[in-house]
Write a structure and sequence with these properties.
Length: 307
Amino acid sequence: MLSLAVLLVGLSVALLVVFLAQVAPSRQTGLARQLDGLRRASRTIEREDDSRLRTEQLAALLQSFGERITGHRRDEASIRLWLAQAGFLGFTDVPTYWGARFGLTAALAAAGFLLAPLVATSVTGVVVAAFWGAAAGWVAPPFYIRSRVKARQKAVQRALPDALDMLVVCVEAGLGLNQALVRVADEIHQVSPLLSEQLVMVNLEIRAGTAREQALRNLAERTGLSDVSSLVAMLIQTDRFGTSIANALRVQAMSLRTKRQQRAEEAAAKTAIQLVFPLVLFIFPALFVVILGPAVLTIVQTLSTLR
């Protein structure tokens, strides 16, 4: 019994030592956890730097390629304005756009030419695949830019009435137009970061020495919205003739809210027409099968018995 007791005590001590050896290293101090957090943060920063470096290298390559191919085009100003409405405000965005367009066209055409023999055996199929790849590469960048412009315009149009209401409150509280724009840009950031960014750019242009009239016109050109253009025209007129900005802004805000309500009613009216196609193509055939299916089967069985 004594030997068994000694054996059990030794085994218990050994298991306790093993347990402590397994548990003790896993318990990290606060300093060790901070060091691990710093290591993970440094790895994340390194990965972000690597991806940013690759993106910059690709952008530089596309820029040089676009400059060599296009040179100075006559429509450069319109393309630059179009890209600015999509959110690309850099000086090198125009050659980068053309480089991406031509490069994507060549890459997809080559991909279609090389991959088509795996599916089609004829020369005509290879040529058609290369042609469709080139067409897709040529159309894809404008489609992306156009969709981005529409999304940004919708975001600005949705938040513009609220921004005008805040602008009215700021002006009636005694702030000047420039200070009111700064305040509205800070307050509207949580609702619409895009509109806040546009207002901040207006303030930066005014601080840089640009006339307020020109800065407001640049805002209308960057957004490409008729509502913003009418707002800018109203602000310029009130600034020239010295009329009350608060009353004009209040009328403009009411007009924008009425337009937004009318657009919502128009979208609701279009819903009934848009539901016709899913009903006819998907729902009605299923209903016909469920309702008329048993009757058709009964008729077929009756005719077979008569024969």
